[in-house]
Amino acid sequence: MTDTPPPADLRLFNSLTRQVEVFSPVHPGEARVYSCGPTVYNYPHIGNMRAYVFADILGRTLSWKGYDLTHIINITDVGHLTDDADAGEDKMEKMAAERSQSIWDIAKHYTEAYWADVQALNIRQPAKWSVATDYIDEMVAFAKGIADKHCYELESGLYFDVSSIADYGRLARAVTEDGEGRIDTVEGKRNQADFAIWRKTPAGETRQMEWDSPWGRGAPGWHLECSVMGGKLLGFPFDIHTGGIDHREIHHPNEIAQNQAHCCAGGLDSAENSGARIWMHNNFLVERSGKMSKSSGEFLRLQLLIDKGYHPLAYRMMCLQAHYRSELEFSWEGLQAALTRLKRIVMAVERLSDAAVGDAVHPKFAPMLEKFAAAVSDDLNTSVGLVALEEALAVKKVDAAAKRAVVHQMDKVLGLNLFGLSREALRIRPKAATLTEAQIEAELIRRKEARAAKDFATSDAIRETLTAKGVEVMDGDPLGWEWRL
Ligand SMILES: Nc1ncnc2c1ncn2[C@@H]1O[C@H](COP(=O)(O)OP(=O)(O)OP(=O)(O)O)[C@@H](O)[C@H]1O
Ligand SMILES: [Zn+2]
Questions:
Q1: Record's SUPFAM superfamilies (predicted)?
Q2: Binding annotation for ATP
Q3: Which ipTM did the prediction report?
Q4: Which end of the chain has less Cβ packing within 10 Å, N or C?
């Protein structure tokens, strides 16, 4: 019997080196992780939530391996422009103006909506949700510390000179024409990739969110926010920084540039000072038409999936079935398949008795647990991890408590809430359903009576009516019926 996961080095893909590296913590026994959080100007779409499912799997894996995890996710409530480079308006200001609402109300509403999705997807709470506007003083102090050596002032704000640090942009490694084309030229910029770390409020304008600074009244740049919160809450260097793959091109190279400047100011030179040792990026959730995006107007929210009758953890399952570095194409068929797979697993778990769940693992399950540990240790290969879980569930003639123990171990990483979910809970009434559950139950009782009286015509008719109304009758199944999605 063993109560710790089988040892396997955790290997993670570092976007900085473009290599899989063995994780070796900065502080022995600890793991410090920062994840770029949502810009709360709108509802998150399910693509955004893929980024947090990924960060959650990373955090759970680190915890499972025994590291003392400190995970920070920020809430961006100021500074993120409609273009990741320096073009456009502040996303928050723009939405507030469109809605004639205060930014603070908008931020509150969408932060709560985001947290509801976090909870529905069984994403663990981080050590802290750091809210950008709570760190304005620290941002001004950070900017002051690097301004002399690395920045210059223009009418529109304080700009970071990317030629002032070693090896700018090595994370993106793609100074393609495409990349450069995205960066809007601001009159007077020394290099095309220079970016604002403080944006001055234009003369004659007032913004809802503005603060005093040595460079005039204005607001911090989005990249500055993450540098400051990461450094302040985790200390430089920390272990891992995560975000979606779009951040690999502009946001994170700019964060790294600032971190380098900041650390060099403290006497530590060179490109080694990226702030975090490992930078990890999840790939996109895409639709046939391309990347799912808030800015494009129409997008899929988790709530829409639920309204259609899909349990939110089916979406988590869908994410786990793909590797985080692969693009994942969303389709309703794919979601349905993920839900069916989750149901099968939950049914198998339900069959296990309520015997005590311990951490101890029976030797019979050692091969599956080893396979599982090897898979998640191999850059978070959850899709193979799921197969190991199913193999463990399929083992015959074994004590139920022992099986529960191994499932419990695996679910610590997968986070499918397998002991909190029942198959009935996975059956969600679609919003468009015309029948209530009570009506369905009543019809099923009528049908049972008809069958008992050998009145098969009536029994078949009831079944057909239910089918027409989106209900599948399942004879011989303890659940009795399902919504047809
Ligand atoms: N389609 C997607 N698939 C996976 N991750 C995504 C996708 N779109 C954005 N992300 C990630 O979601 C996280 C939150 O992003 P944020 O709230 O800043 O969205 P946004 O950039 O305003 O929205 P969008 O890019 O959709 O217009 C970031 O880590 C981002 O990289
Ligand atoms: Zn960020």
A1: Anticodon-binding domain of a subclass of class I aminoacyl-tRNA synthetases, Nucleotidylyl transferase
A2: 294
A3: 0.97
A4: N
